[in-house]
Design brief:
The complex is a heterodimer of chains A (331) and B (355).
Chain A lengths: L16 E15 L2 E14 L3 E5 L6 H8 L7 E6 L2 E2 L5 H10 E4 L13 H12 L4 H10 L4 H4 L9 H13 L5 E5 L7 H18 L2 E6 L2 H7 L2 E6 L2 E7 H6 L4 H8 L44 H5 L5 E4 L2 E3 L7
Parallel strand pairs in A: 3-8, 3-9, 6-7, 7-8
Antiparallel strand pairs in A: 1-2, 1-4, 4-5, 9-10, 10-12, 11-12
Helix pairs in contact in A: 4-6, 6-7
Chain B lengths: L6 H13 L8 H11 L12 H7 L5 H4 L10 H9 L3 H19 L36 H37 L1 H16 L2 H11 L4 H28 L2 H8 L4 H37 L11 H8 L8 H33 L2
Helix pairs in contact in B: 6-7, 6-14, 7-8, 7-10, 7-12, 8-10, 10-12, 11-12, 12-13, 12-14, 13-14
The chains are: A alpha/beta (331), B mainly alpha (355).
């Protein structure tokens, strides 16, 4: 442990969880009785003032999971408790007021703002839904996200840079005073220099407002810096969940190691030695329409044996606070 | 998007038109770069200098000053600046003006110093255009100008009224079907396909064969035929808009469905539906003209452009203007409507393409 950097530890009990997801299943119909098993039994919790990072490759169900949390897509089964209320059961106005409590920040900063509205009008429109503020508040929010209201308030999204648009999105999300912020790849579309600024902004915002945050990215190194805990997702299932440094420096699941190794220019996970012999293959990814039996990663896993293709591994706490769903965890 | 955004060229011509000074053009790209600079925290390259700002300042009330805006009310300065860069162009305004002239003449036909359009022998028969009869007279000596103006009423009323009805009903159903989806969408779509599959001229001829045509009946027939295309167009645009992230953001903000339809989807869908509807008016006017030419529109002797063309066609070699003038009237109106639709579509397309 001594060689690890100090951890952003966090103690949260189940009682204080802002978001609690239990066994969430989302299947997206494709017609002809085919469907994408986008999210297959995912469970996790996010406490107040905590950031959970969610990583996984493209198409693993991260964004679908995010949308299911606010019922932008309807889950097939499972439970999503947002501040103790079940999102999956809510209807009508109750659902709308629950949605207000969890705000999304999208990947594409420009298209997440109405192109016909100025920045100020966008904020006012959102606030007018729940009467949460006036133009004075809008101006304060813009200042809070590091924008100069006198410069940007009356501009259209197309007249702003991507970073500025993303700041406006953050301001819009904050304007509803949510308790949960869901950031769906919020920096993937931005320049690297702007990425860092937006990440800092998100961190400041979270600390200042004591927000619970779900931070989704395909980039483990981005997630590590901002998250308290990291969940790794593969083909609709969580395969590893643990504190940020644990997952980053001592991955338990072979897939996590594949993710870490596939980041160019970073030291390899674990021992720092190349895993030439045991490197999981990054090709031949199976399809989520017809997911593999047993452990969904077994087709690409270098350690897979018979049991992996037969039995789906349960999520087990292997070291304290660090769980993995693997029959042969790396230790 | 078919039209590549060309903000730079547009803006240069735009600025030159206003200020008359070359080099005063602040292009959209400049504006974005500038916002990056002044926005500071996002750290877009700040070395690029302030040359654009001073160039704008040179025009006195250039973009530079207009951009200094107070928060809140009144100051839509950048909005205006952005809008002035996109222009509908003179062709649109000429076309729109010509359409307005015809519409106003038709509306106030009774107040204009025109002879009765059905007065036989208002002048010598088949007289060429002269000072007494600006557009001449037909074979019965009726004043052609008067008949053109009164005849425009039929074309315009049928064209605009039927499309208005179709746009409200078809468009309304389309936006709801596109946004709500599900069984309603499936059903409405199926009905639209059935209507589309029906040959339109056959339907019109069948109705005309059995009953006497009146203007309300013509409006209803053409409205019915225009319903399905307008439904399809609106539904398609709605589907495209409903998936956009800003609409999802509105859903995630807890906005109600009605609110999203009215505040987010409708404003995005309206431009394309309007430009399509204007095209629809032109198509219906042709349709009405065709029916009138066949004698299946309003009963003679009431003037209609189509039946005027038909009446003059036997004298085409001797007195060509009897057919030619209503033909030209229709041609010019159609050209104007098409131009309007085209330019409007382009105008909004550019707006979208910049996203």
């Amino acid at each position: 442990m001594s060689d690890l950097p100090p951890e952003k530890t966090h103690s949260d009990g189940a009682a204080t969880a802002v978001l609690s997801v239990t066994d969430l299943v989302v299947e997206l119909p494709l017609g002809l009785q085919r469907k994408v098993h986008a999210v297959s039994g995912v469970s996790f919790e996010i406490g107040r003032d905590e950031t959970l990072g969610l990583v996984g490759e493209s198409g693993c169900g991260k964004s679908t999971l995010a949308k299911a949390l606010v019922r932008l897509v309807s889950p097939l089964s499972g439970k999503v408790l947002l501040s103790g209320q079940d999102v999956t059961r809510a209807r009508g106005k109750a659902l709308r007021s629950l949605r207000r409590n969890a705000q999304l920040i999208f990947q594409d900063p420009i298209s997440s703002l109405n192109p016909r509205r100025t920045v100020l009008a966008s904020l006012l429109e959102t606030m007018s839904i729940w009467s949460t503020g006036d133009s004075d508040r809008a101006v304060r929010l813009l200042e809070q996200v590091g924008l100069d209201p006198s410069l940007v308030a009356n501009r259209l999204p197309t007249q702003l840079s991507g970073g500025q648009c993303q700041r406006v999105s953050v301001a819009r999300a904050l304007s509803l005073s949510p308790s949960l912020l869901i950031c769906d790849e919020p920096v993937s579309a931005l320049d690297v220099s702007v990425q860092a600024q937006i990440l800092n902004l998100l961190q400041d915002i979270r600390e200042h407002h004591k927000l619970a945050t779900l931070f989704i990215s395909h980039d483990l190194s981005v997630v590590r810096n901002i998250s308290n805990r990291i969940a790794v997702m593969y083909m609709g299932k969580l395969c590893e969940l643990g504190s940020a440094n644990e997952v980053y420096y001592r991955p338990l699941h072979p897939y996590t190691r594949l993710l870490l190794d596939s980041v160019p220019g970073l030291r390899s996970a674990g021992t720092g030695e190349p895993h030439a012999a045991g490197a999981p293959s990054a090709v031949n990814a199976p399809s989520a329409i017809n997911p593999p039996t047993g452990c969904r990663f077994h087709t690409r896993c270098p350690f897979a044996d018979d049991i992996c293709s037969l039995q789906a591994p349960p999520m087990l706490e292997i070291t304290p606070g660090h769980a993995a769903a693997c029959h042969h965890p790396l230790t | 998007m078919p039209n590549e955004p060309v903000p730079t060229c547009r803006s240069v011509t735009g600025a030159a038109g206003v200020g008359g000074v070359g080099g005063a053009g602040i292009s959209l790209t400049d504006a974005t770069a500038e916002s990056g600079r002044h926005g500071g925290p996002d750290g877009a390259g700040s070395g690029a200098g302030t040359g654009t700002m001073s160039a704008a300042g040179g025009t006195g009330k250039g973009n530079g000053t207009r951009r200094a805006v107070g928060n809140g009310k009144g100051g839509d300065a950048t909005g205006v600046g952005a809008r002035s860069r996109r222009r509908l162009g003179p062709a649109f305004w000429v076309a729109a003006a010509w359409t307005c002239v015809i519409v106003l003449a038709a509306i106030f036909a009774n107040l204009l110093p025109l002879t009765n359009p059905n007065l036989i022998g208002a002048g010598p028969p088949s007289a060429a255009p002269s000072l007494h009869h600006f557009l001449g007279t037909d074979e019965l000596g009726r004043d052609i100008l008067s008949r053109i103006v009164f005849g425009a009423r039929v074309s315009l009323v049928v064209g605009f009224a039927s499309i208005a009805v179709a746009a409200v009903i078809g468009g309304g159903l389309g936006i709801v079907a596109g946004y709500i989806g599900g069984v309603f969408d499936w059903l409405a779509n199926a009905v639209a396909y059935i209507i589309l599959a029906f040959p339109p001229l056959l339907l019109l001829l069948a109705i005309a064969a059995f009953s006497h045509q009146t203007i309300p009946k013509l409006v209803a027939e053409f409205a019915f035929l225009a319903l399905a295309p307008l439904f399809r167009i609106t539904r398609a645009s709605t589907l495209a808009v409903a998936g956009r992230e800003y609409v999802q953001a509105a859903v995630a903000s807890g906005a109600s469905r009605l609110r999203i339809l009215v505040r987010e989807v409708l404003p995005a869908v309206l431009p394309s539906v309007i430009s399509y509807a204007i095209l629809g008016v032109a198509i219906v006017i042709v349709g009405e003209g065709s029916l009138a030419f066949l004698g299946l529109s309003v009963a003679i002797p009431a003037p209609s452009w189509g039946n005027m063309i038909a009446e003059g066609r036997t004298l085409l070699t001797l007195d060509p203007w009897i057919s030619l003038i209503p033909s030209l009237a229709m041609l010019s109106l159609l050209l104007a409507l098409n131009l309007c639709a085209d330019k409007l579509g382009e105008y909004f397309e550019v707006r979208e393409a910049k996203l």
